[in-house]
Structures are given as C-alpha cells and as structure tokens.
Automatic annotation (TrEMBL):
Domain Purple acid phosphatase N-terminal: 45-126
UniProtKB keywords: Glycoprotein, Hydrolase, Signal, Zinc
Catalysed reaction, written as an equation: a phosphate monoester + H2O = an alcohol + phosphate
Cofactor section: Fe cation; Zn(2+)
Protein name in UniProt: Purple acid phosphatase
Signal sequence range: 1-19
Family: Belongs to the metallophosphoesterase superfamily. Purple acid phosphatase family.
Assigned EC number: 3.1.3.2
Amino acid sequence: MEVLKLLLFPTLFLATVTAEYVRPLPRKTLPILRDSFSRTHSSYPSQVHVSLAGDKHMRVTWITDDNHSPSFVEYGKASGRYDSIAEGESTSYSYLLYSSGTIHHAVIGPLEDNTEYFYRCAGKGSEFQLKTPPSEFPITFAVAGDLGQTGWTESTLAHIDQCKYDVYLLPGDLSYADYMQHLWDNFGTLVEPLASTRPWMVTEGNHEKESLLFLMDGFVSYNSRWKMPFKESGSTSNLYYSFEVAGVHVIMLGSHTDYDEYSEQYRWLKADLSKVDRTRTPWLLVLFHVPWYNSNKAHQGAGDDMKGAMEPLLYAAGVDLVIAGHVHAYERSKRVYNGGLDPCGAVHITIGDGGNREGLAHRYINPQPKWSEFREASFGHGELKIVNSTHAFWSWNRNDDDESVKADDIWITSLVSSGCVDQKRHELRSVLMTS
Ligand SMILES: *[C@@H]1O[C@H](CO)[C@@H](O)[C@H](O)[C@H]1NC(C)=O
C-alpha cells in the first residue's frame, strides 16, 4: 500500500506542488526515519512536541498508533518523579488512503517560569525534558521558516540546537509533506529532539494546505498535528492566534486564509491589538508566511493584497518587527511603512531559509530598494534576543558548508522607546473605530 502511494501521489499532484522557480543546490530529502514509518510499538508515544498554551501553561502533543492509548501527561521537576498529571484529548484524521495515528494533546500547568520539567506521555516510553520560558527579559527566540526535511534542515536544526533559545518561531511551511501524509510523521520524528524540549510556535504556509477539490478541506493534517493556542487567544481558527511571553506580544497571522477587512481574521486582529498593553508587553511582533517587503524575484508581489488590507492596522498599533518566510532566502528591511522609510514602521524580516527541498531563491531585483538593508540567498536561521524593554539583538546565521556563521546582526530599539507608540495611541483608536 505504501509503495502504491509513493508511486501514485507525485504523479497526481506534481503540477500543484512544483515550484515556479528553478532553485539550485537543494539537498536530498532525508530517508524515512524508521521510528515514524513503521511505528512498531503501537502504544508508545512518538513525535512529541510542546507549545505555549496560555499563561504558565504548555501543550504537549504526541502520536500513538494504538487508539486506546490514554491522553495523559505526568510531569514534575525531578527526573522520574512526577507529582502532577494532566488529562488531555485525542484526535485523528484520514487522508485518502492514509489513516493517522492517534494524536494526543494535553495541557500541563500552571508551570513555574524558566524551569526544567521532566515529563512522560501516557505512562509509557521515554522521559522527556522541557524548559519553560522566562517571565521577564531577556528572552531569546530562534527563527527559521520553510523548514522541510532535507540535509539542510538537519544542519539548520543542529545550529538552532546549539543556540540558547527559549521559544522557536516558525513562519510557515513545516514538513513539505505535500499530500504524502507519512512525511508528516517523518517530520514529527525529525524535529522531536528540539520540539519536545522548547515550545515551538508555528503558523501555516502554503505547503500546509493540502486541499483536494471535493475531497479534502485544507489544513486537515496541520490543524490536527500542530494545535496552537488559538482558543486561549480568543481566535476561532488554528490558522491565526497570539500569545504573550516575557514582555513580548506575538501575533501569528494566516497568509492562507481570509484577511480582508470583512474577514473573521481581520476582526480578531483588531480585537487582539486593542488588548495589547505596552506597559506589560513593550515589544510587539507579528509573523505570517508570505512577506510584504521582498526584493527577491521569487514570489514578487505575492504578499501585496494582505499588506494592503492589514499593514495600516499593524502600523497604527506600532508593531516592532514582522517576520515572514515563503521566499527561500534571507532579507532584512529598515523601518518601513507603505513602501517608504518610516521611523515608526516595522522592521520586516524574510527568513524562508530553513532548508526545504526546493532549494534557494537566488535572483534579486536591482537596484536594491531603499528599504532593503541586507539580503542573501543562503540557508540559515535567526536569533532574536530581547534584552530589555528598549533593546533587542537580532542575528542571522547562515549554514556555510554545515558551519553556522553569523552573517548579519543588528541592535533594534523598540518603538515604545522611540516615542512612536504614544504618538500612535489615538491613531490606533481611530483606526479601530472606523474600519
Ligand atoms: C537595555 O539594554 C541595552 C543594551 O544592553 C542597554 O544599553 C540599556 O542601558 C538597557 N536599558 C535599560 C533600561 O536597562
């Protein structure tokens, strides 16, 4: 059956998943990891990952083949001594010939900040260890989009693992399973060593959609496997949500669902922005998949509609930093709004360079636009260390022949510290009331 699927799927869907650009030097997709493909120990938890789930809580997600396996997590601060237990829920889905394992989600907490916890899923299998994020600055985010599961993905993950980060932010395109559902299992196994130890906060990209006309709705696999705290943030969709951690309000938007001013996402975004308290969270970050400021020829202009609809709202709210993926390269802008330099605009970063199988996007528009400060087509990852309410240090590290080499870095000062946010308070209020 698996052989049949392997033969069938690429030919059926080649037209929809082939990239528009010829990108050189991709690395091969990694071989199927035995653990995820055969899933031999049917009730043993596999593909464990954790995510933030509201104040002082985290969601633990894992998969078993056995649908009678219970959905509880035991946890505590000492290895092998679990003094707390949390009951969860489970789900599963079918995708044509494929049936997923049982996907379990359990929320643990309240947890102490900046603390190591040991945990075990369903009373079976290995013990895992996670660290909760701090409640105050400094906090460090690791960032890379368009991850995939190739040799380059492996080196990006190894470099992220070497950096001391608290939370990983992924602006879309996770597994590049592209309809071949067992590749989602393979991806879950590949990322488990990192994703079981630090919260992974993700938003969807085009490769998560996997819809089939009349047969499959979009995002079935993604929503089942990568449940994010959308209910906790007042959203009705896993495709957009927000969370707060250590003085930072992070908004994860959806480039691949409705975003115009009549949409549910737009309504939710306005409500979420109106709740942001910059004395509690001086930093405001936004992530989504398709970039609004991109001088690469790949996907040129693809983010324009969403930018037209939502940029005024983000500007009025004083968003510090916008992070996107989609373009398989790295680019950093100066503070920009409505196409021009603006000291109260956001810094836009495109970082779709995690290492997917499609390779890099090498061709740029010349001359380089005034708003574009740094651009390079290499695989790599970013690190954002927010030091205090006014200063953050951003660096981008390229995968140079498997070494991590810092290629771009900059201190970013917050809009709160430059007086932009005070000036904007009444502006936001009027935008929120009129639109
Ligand atoms: C914030 O951090 C920066 C960079 O380390 C430092 O120069 C500045 O004095 C700090 N501000 C406060 C209020 O601590």
